[in-house]
Amino acid sequence: MIKNILNRLPRKQNKLVDNRDGGSSTLASNSSRTNSRSNATAVSGINSTSNSGQHYMPLHTKINGNGAHMPYEALPSFRDVPNSEKQNLFLKKLSMCCVVFDFADPVKNLKEKDVKRQTLVELVDYVASANGKFPENVMQEMVRMISINLFRTLSTQPRENKVLEAFDLEEEEPLMDPAWPHLQVVYEFLLRFVASPETDAKLAKRYVDHSFVLRLLELFDSEDPRERDYLKTVLHRIYGKFMVHRPFIRKSINNIFFNFILETEKHNGIAELLEILGSIINGFALPLKEEHKLFLVRALIPLHKPKCIPIYHQQLSYCITQFVEKDCKLADTVIRGLVKYWPITNSSKEVMFLGELEEVLEATQPPEFQRCMVRLFRTIGRCLSSSHFQVAERALFLWNNDHIENLIKQNRKVILPIIFPALERNARSHWNQAVQSLTLNVRKIFSDVDPELFEECLLKFQEDEAKEEENKTKRELIWKRLEDIAAMKAASNEPVLVPLRTNSKATSG
Questions:
Q1: Hey, which residues does 15 pair with through a beta bridge?
Q2: Is Lipid metabolism set as a keyword in this record (predicted)?
């Protein structure tokens, strides 16, 4: 009797802090994994059936930034109410989950946090098992709850240098958001909502609008890899379901890349955005639109410039190769772009570029290859001459690819004279035995295919070497004469006068 009376009394009021920091995610990019989550409790790690069936809402909360107050209210679970009441209960639970707790203090509002998490799990279950179209007012409240929980100012770790090498970033521990226990379930809710066949895209686009998509894209800069992983899957689903948003999504990603390349060189989500684009590019219809080609030239190719490229190079290389496979005529543009941004002092970056170059050349046809081969093999020649054995070795590995070897053989009369000096010097004096051995193999390929051309290049190399030796001797003699004259003048205390050399054309004019 006393227990029943006590249960009717209002609980103690709790003042909640409306802190919107934190959030992450562990969902993989493969959309099929979403379908495998038949039970949201498996994702959240909490069994919703263990809930007592009674949820309480705090008295004083800030709902969506306004000062409205909501009383504590016992909310039964969905299984305890008739079907006719489930939608109203769903709306109440959505409103209850608009409360955002402060996770900076791990011991604050523990009971309320647990109640909210249990409620979020029930909401995910409800959306996953829905068997009727969601009404517009329900979708509005769903998007409202999602926005309140997810859209926030991202927290960052203090770093001395704004622009860091990828390897420095890999050594640092990622910032894990303490609000993840709630945010993970909110992301799962959003994913189920977007993927649900009961979500009418024509109605939902009024709420999942450009503003919503833009704020989702802003969250890709989160330092928590779990959140970026969920965002990747969610954005890919939105791109697939809301066709009207596709141009806007591509343009917005383009703007993120521009800001990253030209301004900050700091963004945590470039790899995930490129992974989404890889799937999008794969679905481009042929012939490619001019808009897509401009995106390749203005955004993707310049992404080779930033120092932190190792973080996202794999995804970038995939996108670039997709373009060349779609339209082989783009190979010349891509190769010239690679040569333009080719690293000079970063050997590990050179190795990455050579790997990407091999993938592009594998999809390159002879006409496009001939347009860019002179500039390309001047760059490859420098790589062959590199004292860093991994760079020289990776460049020599290009001849292991049959398609590339055939392209080189067909154009050997242009290519061999360019790279012959590097090959000859490697064969004679490179310090690494593996590089020497690979160089001898490449030389043998050329000598077997075209012995006359090979001998011609060898004679030319020997002549150039003799001239260089002669010039070296002349320079040494000139310096010796200057030293002798300077010594004589110094002995006699006379100033050393150097005659002024003038341009005859300039003086005559």
A1: 60
A2: no
Asked if residue 373 lies in contact with residue 380, where contact means CB atoms within 8 angstroms, the answer is no
Residue 94 resides in a domain: no
pLDDT at 32: 39
- How far is residue 373 from each of residues 44, 237, 419, measured CA to CA in Å? 55, 41, 12
In terms of DSSP H, where are the helices of 129-220?
136-150, 166-171, 180-195, 201-204, 210-218
238-271 residue pLDDT tens: 999 999 999 999 999 999 999 999 998 899 999 9
Which of these, 407, 428, 408, lies nearest to 417 by C-alpha position? 408
∠ Cα 98 4 46 (to 5°) = 40
Tell me the per-residue pLDDT of 170-209, one tens digit each, with 9 for 90 and over.
Answer: 556 777 888 888 899 999 999 999 999 999 999 999 999 9
Q: How many helices and strands in the chain, by DSSP H and E? A: 24, 0
Question: Read out DSSP for 392-434?
Answer: HHHHHGGGGSHHHHHHHHHTHHHHHHHHHHHHHHHHHH-S-HH
Q: Which range is least confidently modeled, 94-98, 219-223, 295-299?
A: 94-98
Cis peptide before 287, with omega less than 30 degrees from 0? yes
Could you report how far apart the first and last alpha carbons of the chain are, in Å? 116
Q: Which domain holds residue 367?
A: 352-484
Are 388 and 428 within 8 A, CB to CB?
no
Provide the number of structural domains found in the chain.
1
